Amino acid sequence: SIMPATLSAISRGAKQGILFKGGVFAEQLANIETIVFDKTGTLTNGKPIVTDFIFTKEDPIVYATIEAIERQSNHPLAKAIVKATQEKHSCNLPNVNSVQDFSGKGIQAVVEEESWKIGNAKLLGEQAIQSFENGVVSRLAKEGKTVVAVSRNNEIIGLFALQDTIRSQAVDAIQTLKKHGIRTVMLTGDQPETAKAIAQQAGIEEYVASCLPDDKVNYIKTYQHERLAMVGDGINDAPALATAHVGIAMGEGSDVALETADVVLMKNDLTKIAHAIDLSQKMNQIIK
Ligand code: ADP
Ligand code: MG
Questions:
Q1: Which of 26, 28, 153, 278 has its CA 20 to 30 A from that of 74?
Q2: pLDDT in the model for residue 4
Q3: ipTM score of complex
Q4: What is the CATH number of the domain that holds 235?
Q5: Where in the cell is it found (predicted)?
Q6: What is the reported pTM?
Q7: What ligand has the least distance to the C-alpha of 101?
Q8: Mean pLDDT of the chain
């Protein structure tokens, strides 16, 4: 049977936009020592826009091909790339075959018997990307932009930089959690320089970049003795949300993240995490 104090915490949470999926989670949040945040869609708004096109030549067919391939993906970066490339050409879209979408890496396909890859260093190779247009990748990444490269038959022909904005409540939320003595960490599939810039903007000192979904899970397993909560939004955060003591999903996150999480932040408001912890601590005081 559920205690009145627990019931009251759950209902007060609901009024504030914090959905606890059960009394245990409302109870466990009080003792959380570390909170791990996903980057894209969690600390950031998850609505990137293409800010830079760096291509060896302006070729409308190249843009049409990229658009056609990225239409096969529902990654937020793919949506932004579709939007930007469709304005660059008026060609018919080519047929796309053998599409493979690699979580945390990018997308690969065959178009007119040529092999195309769009993604990061894990998909196209670190060396190849770094040697393209001498130093440009680092410069863009240091601005906090995500760099996505394009290769055609294994030759890099260009890249996009995409800018996402940090959520307006992120800095406040992190600061409050730190004042509570909670350790904060950011995990991301993005590259190290981009990760560093975004972590800095959010006020988070610890981050791990180039994380595949499994790497996120392994990180959480490594620190499990610390009573850890994970905050995420994406399909690929679901395994990490399930592994953490308390999984917290952003309200506008993917269905899978919402289903897997123990707590949902209804309005994507990160400052509600500290409120939820307060509710949980007050509730535990009454129970004990
Ligand atoms: P995060 O952990 O920041 O939410 P993801 O794990 O979803 O990021 O993606 C990590 C990286 O994989 C992206 O930064 C991008 O380089 C690459 N990527 C994934 N999907 C795509 C795609 N459809 N097109 C281009 N790049 C992609
Ligand atoms: Mg995300």
A1: 153
A2: 86
A3: 0.95
A4: 3.40.50.1000
A5: Cell membrane
A6: 0.91
A7: 1
A8: 94
Residue 158 confidence (pLDDT) above 90: yes
Q: Which of residues 286 and 59 earns the better pLDDT score? A: 59
Of all atoms in ligand 1, which is nearest to the CA of residue 42?
4
Ligand nearest to the CA of 232: 2
CB of 106 closer than 6 angstroms to any ligand 1 atom? yes
Categorize the per-residue pLDDT at 134 as very low, low, confident or very high, splitting at 50, 70 and 90. Answer: confident
159 and 170 inside one domain = no
Q: Is 171 in the same domain as 282?
A: yes
38 confidence band (pLDDT: 50, 70, 90): very high
Do 244 and 148 lie in one domain? The reply is no
| Total number of domains in the chain | 2
Pair 37, 177 in one domain: yes
> How many other C-beta atoms are found inside a 10 Å radius of the C-beta of residue 177?
24
CATH of the domain at 149: 3.40.1110.10
Average pLDDT value for residue range 215-244 = 94
Give the domain range for residue 213.
Answer: 4-45+166-287
Ligand 1 atom 14, closest CA: 190
Shortest-distance Cα residue to atom 19 of ligand 1: 106
Write the single-letter amino acid at 50.
V
Q: Is the CB of 284 under 6 A from ligand 1?
A: no
